[in-house]
Amino acid sequence: MTELLLEKKNAVIYGGGGAIGGAIARVFAREGARVFVAGRTQAKLDAVAGDITAAGGTVETAQVDVFDQQSAERHADAIAETTGSIDVAVNAVSVMHDQGTTLADLSLDEFMRPIDGFLRAMFITSKAVTRHMGRERPGVILTLSEPGAKLAVGGILGHAASAAGKEAFSRVLAAELASSNIRVVGIRPHAVVDAPTAGSYTKDLFQPGAEAAGKTVQEFLDEGLAQGTLLKRLPTLSEIAETAAFLASDRGGVMTGTVVNLSAGALVD
What we know:
seven-stranded parallel β-sheet, globular
């Protein structure tokens, strides 16, 4: 019988109703984790939970405002009270932001929106779960960023600053939590090829650029962004979720303070 990567692990996925968060939740459950999906929209959470339950997995849902520190802490406390610990936490929270507007036309609010939104969510969720992680049971926090953290292209000032901030946050948090037996690993996927049809904000994010080019969002991704990668394709939700399961498992137990590059070669580092 094949050993399950996350058997008897308790995992909470913030943004669990989104495309990436939902994909990770499904794979975590398949690999034996007891999954807690949290997010803003109950219908999306229920859809993910329904898939997990139908496949025989264990899942619970909760509407949680990750920008409300007390709400996030109450939710994490309730999980720990039920399970005894939180072993894995994934921050897959999405924040809509501008891409394509250069400094001359970019407002301060648009610039700050992803920086404040993404980093506020990371701080609040990390602080909520770390009280219930580590020590005798290894803990893992997985974060998500984007290639914008390292790309030097115009029109992504707020996006790039927030992505770089998320990666810096993850590295420093890994240094702080190592002595508590908690690993922190970032995942840096490119735009996801199958996300526009899977409930993510990717369609809304790239719609203006696609319309300007006279293309659908899928064509814009396949014919535009994909061609800027070494593999000439973009990552799939499945590839991201399978990587996350490995990183969260004991098989990835030596990895911390780093960012896993899933950009299909858009970035080489």
